[in-house]
Amino acid sequence: MNKATLQDISDYTGLSISTVSRILRGESGSNSENVEKTINAAIKLKYPFNFTYLKNKYQFSSQTRIALITTLFPSEFYASLFAGISNASEATNFDVSFHHINPDKTDVLEYIKVLMANEIEGVILFLPMMSEPEYERLLENLPSDFILISVLPIQNPSVDTITFDSYGGGYLVAQHFYQKGYYDVGIVNGPFERTESLLRRNGFQDYVARHKEMKLEWSFDGHFNFIDGAKAFDHYLHSKHKPRAIFFANDVMCVSFLSKAIEHGISVPDELAVVGFDDLPICQYVQPTLTSVRTDYSALGKKALEVLNTKLFGEKQHAGVQSLIPVTLSKRKSS
Predict the structure, then answer these.
(1) Do 157 and 233 share a domain, yes or no?
(2) SS (H, E, C) 5-65
(3) Sequence-ordered list of residues with C-beta below 8 angstroms from that of 295, at least 6 positions apart, any chain
(4) 147 lies in the same domain as 81
(5) Is position 173 within any domain?
(6) At what angle do helices 195-209 and 166-180 cross, to 10 degrees?
(7) For residue range 87-134, what is the model confidence (pLDDT) as tens digits?
């Protein structure tokens, strides 16, 4: 695709080339209608210019329509994700809409093409079950200048990705256990087909392996849902080796396990310490309150929109760059 020119913007807006040029240099005294018309045309035609500079020079409203596409499972996690991206968009020129699809029934590529026909100019993907070949298929069949990013970790990313430091989160939990003197530890994993599950497990296990006092003596493989949290507790209850502290790959499984433990008279954290991942709002309301790895969804949304803005007005090629959002540990009574 040929790059847009000032002539293209002039033709699109009906304004002279000299007027368009002055507006985009930030040197125009033109009325706000012409400014907005010119900047909207530059965005639509993907003409490179310094949006932030012009935003400071002129008073205008201009929005770029972005779609967040995900497979929705009703839970606090998705509410937190949506709220974080929505809150971050309020201080930008992006208008973010939310789209739920079932990948088993909907072709993602065709869905994006429909969005493009409706003037969506970029897409944020959060599709947990999407494979690497499917990402590559999107890149091969969408225009090279179409803006596409993922906010979910990918093992070998082909699209630019913004995601939380899952490895670092697992490492933080193991470090917390060590500092508390909990040396016999366990883990409830998420599904191994999910990259973030592997990273959380690897971060936790790597810390344990580097400290000879610690021992990983129990594990259970789950799928990020309440049912598997309860199953993990049943497995723990009948296990010969019971750890002093357990790391859960997400809060949902941890809350379910914690509820069962309290029902069975297990004192948390005196007999058993538990830590989750995501720091969902529910962590502050269960009893005892739940220690969890805090993932800042507003920071994720802000970084995602910064990358979108850079790609919108600059280099649009997909380099597979992965940006990690730091995580912290919210320490509460469960550990």
Answers:
(1) no
(2) CHHHHHHHHCCCHHHHHHHHHCCCCCCHHHHHHHHHHHHHCCCCCCHHHHHHHCCCCCCEE
(3) 164, 169, 277, 278, 279, 325, 327
(4) yes
(5) yes
(6) 30
(7) 888 777 788 889 988 878 889 999 999 998 887 888 999 988 888 899
**Amino acid 308: pLDDT:** 84
- Its sign, for the CA torsion 88, 94, 98, 104, is negative
Matching residue, tokens 């309440």? 226
Q: What is the CATH number of the domain that holds 208?
A: 3.40.50.2300
Average of pLDDT values for 271-280? 96
Amino acid at 236: Y
Is 332 domain-assigned? Answer: no
CA-nearest of 185, 213, 207 to 273 is: 185
CATH number, domain at 17?
A: 1.10.260
Q: Do 301 and 160 share a structural domain?
A: yes
Separation between Cα atoms, residue 195 and residue 262, nearest integer Å: 31
70 phi and psi angles, rounded to 5 deg: -145, 170
DSSP state of 331: -
Which percentage of the chain shows pLDDT scores above 70?
94
Asked if residue 318 and residue 210 are part of one domain, the reply reads no
Tokens of 1: 């695709």
- Between 289 and 145, residue with greater pLDDT: 289
Q: Do 276 and 218 share a structural domain?
A: yes
